[in-house]
Amino acid sequence: MVAGITALPTGASADTPNASIDRKVIEPLPWQAGYGFVTGNVVSGPHRSFYMAGQGPTDENGEVQHPNSIAGQINQTLDNMEKALSAAGMDWSNLITLNVFTTDMQEFFEVFEETIHQRVTVDGGARFGGALLQISGFAFPGMKVELVGHAVGA
Hints:
Strand content: 15-25%
């Protein structure tokens, strides 16, 4: 790491060890690493971008799941995002931005470590920037959380 910049070979695997995408994680503020996010990512070279629409805690019929559990809603939303990433040929390691909208900031922080931080950052290897916003409500009654992501891959 030099001056808050970490170079990561995004998209490289055993099948494509020399992926043609160059990704640099920008993290000039060390305190952010403890929360599992970074200031931003610089991506260059030939790549694909996936701009994911807002994902919520709904099932395949659009019904809100886990109306009384923000942890359940976050995990359902992460399940939906994993399906979308997979359909785009990507996974959490491709995520460069994650914006979180919630109706209850205190309740969100009570489960952040066991949900988003564990699944996306620790298990999924994501290094992303983003925003956390508290809002008054969502389009579907009972929703407590919505996530919006942006991913890039070779």
